[in-house]
Design brief:
Spore Coat Polysaccharide Biosynthesis Protein SpsA, Chain A; alpha/beta; eight-stranded mixed β-sheet; single chain; about 50% helix
């Protein structure tokens, strides 16, 4: 699916001279998640329930057949959308920066770069974080690294002060106030930002050392209406357990297949929560992040699309830790899905205005990317239950709910849909060189069940605790032996063959299987 290409904004329209007035006008029409639903949405929901109740009273079976038909058609459309969007993903990568472009950079001409690092209860990873940021290949005098910490987070502050990071690090105390969210803290950092460009890193992140320079080169090369570069995220512990195997494969399909395809087609791009490189002036013109949205990255990506600005994917890796504990994973995933629900409700407060802002193609993409993501995970257990009940009882009532056209469409969607999504997970394993994980993707339905558990938890929380930020614990898994292999800018990354045995497991540097330390990683650009 290709959205109609919006007219390229002229440079004056992108960042007007009267930026303050432009920002105020935009903020006046920008909705926020401080309230879950608007009065009009409540009224619309009540009318919809009344209409459904009336139809059910008049014709119960007919209403249920219609509902099943709509749901089945929705699954088919979603499957077709994701298949079309990612069909040629492996042939088209993100924005690449060649080594010679980095070599040509004049360090004196590099702009000031602001790094925001929101921290909350991260004392255990402070040392590793500072080490990772110090490895960044960028002039120290042109870095501004803001360590944003809640003033009442005593353990993290003690760890920071004990480390005594010094320039270019700045410890910023954020007064504790409602809401206790990451975007609220990031907005404090945005107010202090001095850089022409700005990036966010999480506490457990290990960005590639040349990522900032790549972002500068790419930003200078791309049109001004490209206001954000999303770096690729990968996990350094994809083989800790079955959960991390699924998680790593999911990240591979999301950051290496879906996002580059969306960006290339000019569709809205759901940003990740870290390694977003912004033009600072554009971020300020957008009004920063929504402090009340627990997936502020997704929300901001939609507002970028509504301004007819663009996001591109940068071919540089930031390594993260895959969640390896079930309770921790459910807390994180339920927060993400709750944020999808929040974002959908916020942007759908005025559907006609959203249609005008995005255009027809992007409006449909928004429904399928943002609305369908939590909805399908909520519906899956109900459909699985119907299938199992029919298999066990052969109930004629259930059979009546699926007239021939709906039944055959449902069968095709179920078979092809499960195959396609399992295929994507396998592809995600292969793209990242995690070949040993591929066989485990046959058990993907177990992962989808966990997603539904998280979705129903999110659905409850969006009503009773909409702004509650469930903290994800980091530093739970010891890093694998050896350093993560950086891809050197290559698309479809492969592990360094000198550091990987035949089973796909990294070997420690200096071991007989490791070969010489300086061997260049093998990559394929497709």
């Amino acid at each position: 699916m290709r959205a109609p290409a919006p007219a390229t904004p002229d440079l004056g329209a992108v960042f007007p001279s009267n930026a303050v007035e432009e920002r105020q006008r935009f903020e006046a029409r920008r909705d926020h998640a401080d309230r879950t639903v608007s009065g009009a949405q409540v009224a619309g929901g009540v009318l919809l329930l009344l209409a459904a109740g009336l139809l059910t009273w008049l014709n119960l079976v007919g209403t249920l057949v219609g509902l099943v038909a709509v749901v089945t058609l929705g699954y088919a459309v979603l499957m077709a959308f994701k298949s079309l969007v990612t069909a040629d993903a492996v042939r088209h990568g993100p924005v690449r920066v060649a080594p010679w472009e980095l070599d040509k950079l004049d360090e004196e001409s590099l702009p000031i770069y602001t790094i925001l690092v929101p921290l909350y209860r991260e004392a255990r990873v402070v040392g590793r974080l500072l080490t990772s940021l110090r490895r960044l290949d960028y002039p120290r005098r042109k870095l501004q690294i803001l360590l944003l910490c809640e003033a009442d987070d005593t353990p993290t502050l003690e760890a920071l002060y004990a480390a005594n990071p010094g320039p270019p690090f700045e410890i910023v105390l954020v007064p504790p106030s409602y809401p206790r969210t990451k975007p609220k803290v990031c907005n404090v950092g945005l107010e202090r930002a001095r850089g022409q460009y700005l990036v966010i890193y999480d506490a457990e992140d290990r960005p590639a050392t040349d990522q900032l320079k790549k972002a500068v080169v790419a930003m200078r090369r791309l049109p001004r209406h490209v206001v954000c570069l999303q770096a690729r995220l990968e996990y350094h512990n994809p083989q800790t357990n079955l959960l991390t195997r699924f998680f790593a494969a999911e990240y591979g399909t999301f950051y290496d297949m879906l996002l580059p395809s969306l960006a290339r087609r000019g569709l809205p791009v759901p940003l990740g929560g870290t390694s977003n490189h912004f033009r600072t002036s554009a971020l300020r013109a957008l009004g920063g992040w929504d402090s009340y949205n627990v997936t502020e990255d997704l929300d901001l990506g939609m507002w970028i699309a509504r301004r007819r600005w663009r996001v591109e994917i940068l071919d540089s890796i930031t390594w993260e830790e895959a969640n390896s504990r079930l309770g921790n994973w459910v807390r994180q995933r339920s927060r993400w899905l709750k944020g999808y629900m929040q974002t959908y409700l916020v942007h759908m407060r005025s559907p006609l205005r959203l249609w005008r802002d995005l255009g027809p193609g992007n409006f449909l993409a928004f429904q399928l990317l943002v609305g369908a993501t939590p909805l399908t995970t909520l519906c899956n257990p109900l459909l699985w239950g119907l299938t199992l009940a029919y298999a066990a009882t052969g109930s004629p009532l259930i059979q009546e709910l699926f007239p021939a056209p709906v039944f055959y469409l449902g069968i095709v969607s179920m078979v092809l849909g499960n195959f396609i999504f399992a295929y994507y997970l396998v592809t995600g394993c292969l793209l990242l060189g995690n070949h040993r994980n591929a066989k485990w993707m046959l058990a993907a339905p177990l992962y989808w069940m966990l997603m539904s558990v998280a979705a129903w938890k999110a659905a409850v929380q969006v009503v009773v605790r909409p702004h509650y930020w469930e903290k994800t614990r980091h530093g739970l898994v010891e890093e694998e032996l050896g350093e993560p292999v950086e891809d050197g800018g290559g698309w479809r990354p492969r592990p360094d063959p000198a550091r990987v045995d035949r089973g796909g497991v990294r070997q420690p540097v200096g071991s007989p299987a490791a070969g010489r330390e300086g061997a260049a990683p093998a990559t394929s650009r497709g």
